[in-house]
């Protein structure tokens, strides 16, 4: 049985918008301004290598599909070859290798994906999708790489939910220049 894992770069005030600088956000690329160090880079590489599939919203998918196919290396090879699922009501023919569009009952589709995969099905970015998955109790693990910066504006991961969501901290560490990696699981 697969697991749904959300992984996000976040500012201290919870902003997750455009950490890589490709979305024309006022502070786009903010995560590159703070060094996450070798240990932080290893965390992201290990996370990717342990992934069985990607589950992405359309905007993140399009950004990844524009960037990763032209890149080389271990990280890029894994992203480019693994199964990718994109939640979208407007995209019909994804061009990135091994991509499938999910446009029906998202909760049912996600449960089916968990049954089809044995490893982690990882959600990068994809704020709207991440919020949906959290609200529908479909997330098995939440990984936040919290950068020591306050942006003051931008999309935040957490918004209103239909009910209280309780999580259990399973790991925490400081990497690089004060970046905190927090890993939470469902509190069951």
Notes on the protein architecture:
By secondary structure, the protein is of the alpha/beta class. It is built from five helices and eight strands; from the N terminus they run βαβααββαβαβββ. 29% of the residues are buried. The protein has helices at residues 37-49, 58-67, 74-81, 106-116, 127-135; strands at residues 3-11, 51-57, 84-87, 99-102, 120-124, 141-147, 167-175, 179-186.
Short key terms for the protein model shown above:
188 residues; alpha/beta; 5 helices
Task: Give a brief description.
With 188 residues, the chain is an alpha/beta fold. It has helices at 37-49, 58-67, 74-81, 106-116, 127-135; strands at residues 3-11, 51-57, 84-87, 99-102, 120-124, 141-147, 167-175, 179-186.
Give the N-terminus to C-terminus distance in angstroms: 17 Å
Radius of gyration: 16 Å
Q: What is the number of strand segments? A: 8
Number of helices: 5
Share of helix, binned: 25-40%
User: How do the SSEs run, as a string of H and E?
Assistant: EHEHHEEHEHEEE
Major β-sheet profile: 8 strands, mixed
- Unreliable stretches: none
Quaternary organisation of the protein chains: single chain
